[in-house]
Amino acid sequence: MDMQEPRTYSPQPRSRKAYLWIAILTVALAAACVFAVYYALQTGIQQAQASAISAEKAQIRENAAQAEPVDLATPLREDTVSEVLKAESIPAYSYDQCWSMDVSKPSGVTLADLKLVSRGAFVGIEDAFLKAEQDYGVNCLFVMAIASLESANGTKCFRPNNMFGFGGRSFSSKSECVDVVSRALANNYLSPGGSLYKGKRITDVNKRYAASSTWDNKVCRNMARYYSIISPNHNAQLEKLK
Question: How far apart are CA 189 and CA 195, in angstroms?
């Protein structure tokens, strides 16, 4: 009887498809692990943030409960009054005093003061005169007095919105006209070295601004009238705050 050799098992090599599935499963498992770790970290961070916010709110409530009431109205009111009291009283300058006045310096009037003396087309643009004084330093009552003389309080303009007979030009608004003329007066007529500078009094400006020899007298009278109206009211308001 012939003896047969025992058979041995030879495993078949795995197919490429099997290896592909193994790789896919490995990557998926790794991704799941990474996501789980990320989710756990994010959850921990959010919980920590929520806990910190809750603790902060609790601290704020506790501080608010223990805090004493703060009176804001009184210090604000006192500060406002203090600022107003820093303003100087405004004299009722006479004609002679206006004549010798340095009109390159600001008048110190308020918007309420200007509304007492504005007439005609000046009503509603008082802030333009005041802003020009603040921007260029020139006395806004002097500027208003010129405009009053040249255009009957802005009602008869030489050119559209030109209340000063200035430069033979038009303006987009009366407020623009006030700004342009105030700047020209400050820089050209009232500043030493200015192209039209002759001095800082009304009569000095007259020499280069107007041909009329009585222009300065009329402007001066307007200014004196403004001061006579503004002074008693302005000073009375200051006294009420003392």
Answer: 7
Q: How far apart are CA 166 and CA 74, in angstroms?
A: 49
Structure-token pair, residue 183? 């700047």
Is the C-alpha dihedral spanning 155, 161, 163, 168 positive or negative?
negative
SS3 at position 89? coil
Q: Summarize the confidence of residues 145-157 as an average pLDDT.
A: 97
Higher pLDDT, 174 or 31: 174
Looking at residue 77, what is its pLDDT?
42
Written as one string, the DSSP assignment of 182-219 is HHHIIIIISSTT-TT-S-SSHHHHHHHH-S-TTHHHHH
Distance between CA 101 and CA 201 in Å, rounded?
A: 6
Q: Is 206 exposed, middle or buried (0-12, 13-18, 19+ CB in 10 A)?
A: buried
pLDDT tens string 95-138: 999 999 999 999 999 999 999 999 999 999 999 999 999 999 99
- 65 vs 47, residue with greater confidence: 47
CB atoms < 10 A from the CB of 39, how many? Answer: 10
189 contact partners, CB below 8 Å, separation of at least 6? 196, 197, 198, 205, 208, 209
**SS3 (DSSP) at 106:** coil
In degrees and rounded to multiples of 5, residue 162 shows phi and psi of -90, 95
CA 67 to each of CA 59, 62, 72, 141: distance values in angstroms, whole numbers, following the listed order: 12, 9, 14, 51
In this prediction, residue 68 has a pLDDT band, given cuts at 50, 70 and 90, of low
CA–CA separation, 73 vs 242, rounded Å?
A: 19
Q: Which amino acid is at 150?
A: E
